[in-house]
Fold these 2 entries.
Entry 1:
Amino acid sequence: MFFGTHCSENSKSSGAFTNFAHVQHIFNAMDYNHNEIDKKWQQIWAEKGTYHAPNSSEQPKFYVLDMFPYPSGAGLHVGHPLGYIASDIYGRYKKQKGFNVLHPMGYDAFGLPAEQYAIQTGQHPEKTTAINTSRYREQLDNIGFGLDWSREFKTTDPAYYKWTQWIFIQLFDAWYDQSNDKSRHINTLIDHLNKNGTEGLRAAETETLELTAAQWNAMSEKEQSEVLLNYRLAYRSESNVNWCPALGTVLANDEVKDGMSERGGHPVVQKQMMQWSMRITAYADRLLEGLDRIEWSNALKETQRNWIGKSVGAALFFDIKNYPGQIEVFSTRPDTLFGATFLTLAPEHELVDAITTDEQRAAVAAYKERAASRSERDRMADTKTISGCFTGAYALHPINGTLVPIWIGDYVLASYGTGAVMAVPAHDSRDYAFAKYFNLPIVEVVEGGDIALESYDAKSGKMVNSDFLNGMDCMDAKGKMIAHLEQIGYGKGATQFKLRDAIFGRQRYWGEPIPVYYDNGIPRTLPLEDLPLTLPAVDAYLPTEDGEPPLARAENWTYNGLPLETTTMPGWAGSSWYFLRYMDAHNDAEFAGKASTQYWNQVDLYVGGSEHATGHLLYSRFWTKALYDLGHINFDEPFKKLINQGMIQGISAFVHRINGTNTFVSAGLKDQYETHPLHADVAFLQGDELDVEAFKNWREEYTDAEFILEEGKYYCSREVEKMSKSKFNVTNPDEIVSKYGADVLRMYEMFLGPIEQSKPWNTQGLSGVAGFQRKFWKLFHMGGAFNVSAAPAEKKALKAVHSCIKKVSEDIENFSFNTSVSAFMIATNELTDLKANNRELLEPLVRLIAPFAPHLAEELWEKLGEMGSVTHTAYPKHNESFLIESSKNYPVSFNGKVRFQLELPLDMAKDAIEKTVLEDPRTVEQIGEKQVRKMIVVPGRIINIVIG
RNA sequence: GCCUUGGUGGCGGAAUUGGUAGACGCGCUGGAUUCAAAAUCCAGUUCCUUCGGGAGUGCGGGUUCGAUUCCCGCCCAAGGUACCA
């Protein structure tokens, strides 16, 4: 047979070997024909359902999961499988360790790219989604993942989103009871209101309501429904939203980055709208607490903690001079109350107009207008400029009654806390800057800084100028002040969160319809038997002329003649619970059967990117907790252990065009001209050298391009960037697979470095792993034939194999896959040197490498004459007795510097070692005229002699 | 600014509780093989060196017989977050 497998020419894709027929050479059993072997085993696995995991088993369970991929039109690049390979290795390892391993895969297929494409082409997004998912599937299959494909689904399948809608309804029918610290069915709230009104009610709410039972019972159904929306976990309210005009939809906070939409980078503005939201803030404390019970990276936990942003302090009330109301402020530093020399309100604060004096009215109005005209983005971009305006009004200090001027300033945000702060310029840098700018008094109340120069923000120091707090440590003073304020009725302990409720409705087509209809303005949910509420056909995937979402275009978008909700769910809805569906993916009666969720329980190992820290990973924790509270599942954290895989970056290539010409200059000469860099496709490069012809044929505009060469070659400059189609630096895994085989891709991606680290994709090292695979295969062959000896192995070889077993097993447990690959290389090199081909050595080695290189392992397993799949065999255990050494080559140091080595028996006593070392002529030479001050002998480790 | 994670040869990266820094791989250099090349195999490869040694894990200190590892103070990079009171 003729193949071109080992040729080094850059072939583009599978089946391309005819392109380099000139380097074909004769194949024999010595060679590993990866194309044939990969396909053979992938087919056998699929036919036999090798990776199918039953929903009950004698074996302990293990649930491994990769973050839900969004199947984009670009297909997979080599960065995507990094995490999948790691989870696959771990899952296969666990399976060989005797676990019933669930490792499923599916697609998060609702979302903007498919919809944008639909808008451009008029094609139903369903079509592109189907094309993209099958492409993903094909690429995943090529890598040989041990996935249980019988559980595959897409979020866009009505059979799946039926249950996404059902969960929405559960959340709509729930409220958060703070007295029990859990969500409960809305009927329990209605009971409470019927009997007691809001008296004794402690609930997560949009605003605080005070109702007597009589008032509640006197309300119309519609009025009552509005009251209930104040408490439901899925609720509708008039709220300030991030509106993205370019996308024509609202976005959640985590979908906005630097005032721009995360997808597409379009400007986002603030707007008041009636919106569906999710009351995630009800869970703020539990989302924080749960972090202590899960094994996630510190960085990720910190990101979530920052996002939730809990601050503990006090609510304080200031009376206003000549005005009946009070101003409530939130402060984390009530201990500094005696240093509060003014109050600052957000320009939008509701009391501003009421308290402003006539003299200041014009100035305040002008300032308010100015502040309102500045977008959120401008305010963010420009935090250095200090601005504000005095209202003319004064508050009264709650303790000593002194007059405190009330200012407005846009450094105070209306949306956080009460939209008002007590300004303590001596101990808050923002207040300090404001006070300096407007020449307001600064009073030091905590010792430790120099307030003439800057504010002293640190939370330590003794209190001064603070009446009854003087001399106390400020952190102790904080508690005392709160107690005092509570006593005099001017404050209480309070907690604030940065976390906002999540906007849930999207003015888009390609999402799950929200299963709600409006009965005389009252939102009602569809009964289970009418789910799923499937996406209707529309004539265009655009808003209607009067700005209604696309679903408003659908004919008869009604339920029993009543209008249905026209917004759809956000991208994160379907991905917030998919890990539960995999447990029982085809259940038509429930979102997942109780027996299945109890058996599979939490995801034991979750692998994915850290970019989901404040979105998906927070929302799934929230839904899991809510489903737990409502009794649907029996665990309240979805992902027990999480590993963040790093990003694989691309190394972009640039050509340099001389400005205003079609002439390109090689990288080394570019500084001699005025040039502009342009991306060139990395496929045209061999090293840094550009294939000029390929480049010319790339695009019409380059056909006539001219090139200024260096030594007859055109070199590109290189830069590490995010791997992306638009940067032409993408490497497709299929290319690697067809050229080197799936196992080489798998091992190379692992060999690249620690899984958590980001690193550029560099194909140079691939040949090393390919060479290893060939060498490994050759251990089993001699003179062209499979050749494994039944004779017992020699000691050295046994030691090589068993130390490899030990190292690899430990490494897998520590997710240190790069060092496992090294360990395989070391063992293979040693066995090659020893010319060892004993079955006793090679058989366990095949089982050991199976998680990393499953195709290779299966093929060798079959050749060894073993029955069944190697994935069903036990993972090898090392035998410590093969590893025991009898002697140690001691490094002998003088003053910490190694001078020579000395081979000594390991069981030699300390004083005997000292004696031997001191008698050694090399020791005598090192000591020379000097004295031995001290001698350190650590048996089995080192010998150090201190001389001087 | 704050939080988190990092910083080791030409490159990707190793190094157990503090105990021979640079495993493994790439690249490079020399050699074998070849008409020649590719592939393969062998040897070498942290830097400096007067060939005795000396320096060396971002920088400066410290603890220790001994520090990539522990402590203190800085610098730099990546990611997250930001008038959050």
Entry 2:
Amino acid sequence: MPNKRVTLADVARRAGLSTAAASMILNGRTDTRLSAEAHARVNDAAAELGYRPNVAARGLRTRKTLTIGFISDVVATTRFASGLIQGALDAARKAGHVLLVLETGGDPARESEAIAAVLDRQVDGIIFGVMRARELFVPDIPQATNVVMLNASNKKHPVSVLPDELSGGRAAVALLADAGHRNGIALIGHNEEVEKNLFRSATVGQRIAGIRAEMAERGLRFAAEESCWDWEPHHGYDVTRALLKDRGDIRALLCMNDRLAFGAYQALADHGLSVPHDVSVVSFDNDELASYLRPGLTTVALPHEAMGRSSVELLLDHDRRPGHHLIPMPVIERGSILPPAG
Amino acid sequence: MPNKRVTLADVARRAGLSTAAASMILNGRTDTRLSAEAHARVNDAAAELGYRPNVAARGLRTRKTLTIGFISDVVATTRFASGLIQGALDAARKAGHVLLVLETGGDPARESEAIAAVLDRQVDGIIFGVMRARELFVPDIPQATNVVMLNASNKKHPVSVLPDELSGGRAAVALLADAGHRNGIALIGHNEEVEKNLFRSATVGQRIAGIRAEMAERGLRFAAEESCWDWEPHHGYDVTRALLKDRGDIRALLCMNDRLAFGAYQALADHGLSVPHDVSVVSFDNDELASYLRPGLTTVALPHEAMGRSSVELLLDHDRRPGHHLIPMPVIERGSILPPAG
DNA sequence: ACCGCTTGCTAAACCCTTTTAGCAAGGCCA
DNA sequence: TGGCCTTGCTAAAAGGGTTTAGCAAGCGGT
């Protein structure tokens, strides 16, 4: 309500001390020799006046603004990865920091703009997030700047947070195999382009690698591999529909993501096949969609929230080590897997 | 790359002038009497050194930080309303501003914390956003602070941005009526509690009011009104399933939101009814879900992006007027409405 | 009486920018 | 020659905090 903000000078005046004394006391410095009496007077004055330090002014001197720049292509505003920002916001809050969120839409000009905008505001560090994990190009940044890559990697900025897709891929296979599936497993959404093109998505390569490694170790082979260019529901629908037309032996679908699985559900229903009694389905991401389906879709989750949290913690961790910090992908069991019938 | 940031003093030195001169020239002041020669020297120096002003230091003097606090319950991190933040981010960027995004989860303690955090950073104004439009309680804020309520309203802060639900409700009815539906229209998701309890959701009341007004004006009546407590897919499923068991005359479903409609689709499929040939469906929100369904769901969209944009524009508009700024809800036509069969 | 140490505190510089007040030099007029 | 007005610029304060250097007083020891 009061219109004028309380300043440190106000506190010092009321305590009958200098601003220097007030500053040191409020910052809890122990190397200060100020009397217990002085401590009490300053603390009381600050409390009575409701003093709050001006972070900008303090930052001018200390070069710490308790503010982190969070620059992403489309993370904040798409549902796919909003967990990233949620985790980051929460971790930042717990550390007394705040996030300056900017979006670039992936446009290099806007990326440069965004970097300039956060540097102009003296942020303590920058997190670069992307929706689909990939190698991200980043315009030049002053060397002293702390940078963490979130769901991305970059040679110049070696600290990155990524999902542990290799283990995740293995886990998906394990779910089917442990339920007893050995034959009639189809892979939906494998895409050779993606598998090879590391730039587009480094981690999807790992996902597939994990799948293939686990299949091999268990002595299993896919009955079919349906590839498609993109991973939207209608792709899953089309591909699954075509598959079912040809083959009567399909007992399980391993879908590369939940949106494909969503389309696959529709195609299975069209064919009069029931999930999970006729066909089991497992996929990846734990998209919100997965919980809407009936039966609920069992999926290997992208740990977005944990990743976002880690990115902030790493940024603030003074002696963090470079490298890829892999976050485990938890298995979310719902109702889409059953042992094969008959 | 250079490790030390270029300051105004550097620019002034290189131009052979005082920082005062440099400051005035770079700020484009016209009341200054500085020579054309001086202008050229300063501008050149700034360009050569790549000078960027320190926003925090400037803000200390000018009390403008080009930064807006965006405080929400769960807006940024849920898919439902992420358009709000997307629009706000974009409008802010275009105005040379930046958003400090904080989330409170609706917890009053965290709301107070969040307000303190942004005020400590001297933001130019605060936008309070909520996921479900409602009357929002806001802890005390210094009077001089600019505040805009986004998807919410509040007596103490009279500038708010809301969807035009009254017109939206009318539009949904008009879609069915214009397609020829007069009988067998069921309302799915009406909820008396919500309809009356303005605190929980002021705008849903408007949505229903619009629906009822348009029905009345066209001389139509609902064949059934199924209410449910919440609006998740399984509620839509349960309610629709129960409805179809009793009644064979249902030709159209007006669902209060897309998630209900999603559940209704599943129930219709269970009953062997086809959308839109047997039953037309229309709903609200334009959730991403709506485009995934087959056939695509015709819906009256929540204009989240436009709302977010407006909130920033209003905040920065120096002579904005108090009151509710209503943003039109566009009709998104997909394939879920057809004239009634037979 | 003088030296040196400790204790408890403050003055002043500093961070970077904006803004106010005013100086110095030149021209014009009387 | 003096007074006044422009012109073109700068010194310095201000904004709110942190930090360094150092002052003053009190005390113990010689």
